[in-house]
Amino acid sequence: MNRPVPLSALTALARRPPVRDGFGVGLAVGFSGLAFGTTAVASGLSVLQACVLSLLTFTGASQFALVGVVAGGGNLVAGAVGALLLGFRNTLYGLRLSELLDWHGPRRALAAHGVIDETTAVALAQRGRADVRAGFTATFATLFTLWNATTLVGAVATESIGDPDVFGLDAVGPATFLALLWPRLKEGGRTLVVALLGAAIALAATPLLPPGAPVLLASIAALVALGDDGEPTASERSAR
Amino acid sequence: MTLWAAVLVTGVGCYLLKYAGLSAPRALLEHPLVRRFALAVPVALLAALIALQTVADGNRLVLDLPRLGGMAAAVAALLLRAPFLLVLVVAAATTAVLRALGAG
């Protein structure tokens, strides 16, 4: 920034709902880096490897997938492929976000690193491009900072942190996604059908496919939305 | 493949996957079918993640009562229009209490 920004302007910015949402999500989810750092080092990664993985990959599911294979003594190529399979859903998110964010050049290259579940969910919950961008950026900045800081802390302090499940932290991930998806679910109709079908497909595929694949397979539930039943949903209208 | 190579391939590959989506040709998105699909995909994927993170453990489906209780509490909080962070606190606290009580 070239000019000094008055404090009141910053305060007003922080009060904007998309920034507040993004900050809240970043705070809520960012601390799960503790769990990742802990798991990574317990699985046999060095502290440096755990931190580099969080910095470069910055998509939790892929990171946990790779680390899980390392822990199980599995084939590292299969581990990396599994992680990339999981990362492919970010491509689908990007497809959606590209027109909402409408960023180009270096800004797009930077924003690409932040295209993940949480930033997408916050961005989709906003109305209007300015709010979409503000929500995306606030979530990305908060989450990236915390995720990497807590990965380091978790990795360094592996032995002393104990079991995060004791604090119910395993419920925070799904509850986060549920809270973020809630406004879309309340649209009902076709959106609700897509969500329920997506969950059902993933659950049915879980015993049959390697971890990571069921989530991707669930994207075929979105084909339901291709049928034109007249009225566009609220989010379709806002996207126009 | 060494562990370092796996870490770097995963990191760089995941970035390129994100960038590819964000840089998809605009014409592709102007098709109404692609547009509707792209709108619905995050809903399907997030719903799948919710389901799997609630009941899946690797290749198994596991009914963990404290976690299910936490999710039920989250739904109740959402129905009562609780703010976002409160929903998460309620979910974690319910799960922690049920687990401490030995439910599962």
From TrEMBL, chain A:
The keyword Transmembrane applies. InterPro entries: Brnchd-chn_aa_trnsp_permease (IPR011606). One of its GO terms (cellular component) is plasma membrane. Keywords: Cell membrane, Membrane, Transmembrane, Transmembrane helix, Transport. The keyword Membrane applies. It is a multi-pass membrane protein. It is found in: Cell membrane. It holds the Pfam family AzlC. The chain crosses the membrane at residues 25-58, 64-88, 191-209. One of its GO terms (biological process) is L-valine transmembrane transport. Belongs to the AzlC family. This is Branched-chain amino acid ABC transporter permease.
Automatic annotation (TrEMBL), chain B:
The chain crosses the membrane at residues 6-25, 37-56, 68-98. This is Branched-chain amino acid transporter AzlD. InterPro entries: Brnchd-chn_aa_trnsp_AzlD. The lineage of its organism: Bacteria, Bacillati, Actinomycetota, Actinomycetes, Streptosporangiales. It holds the Pfam family AzlD. Keywords: Membrane, Transmembrane, Transmembrane helix.
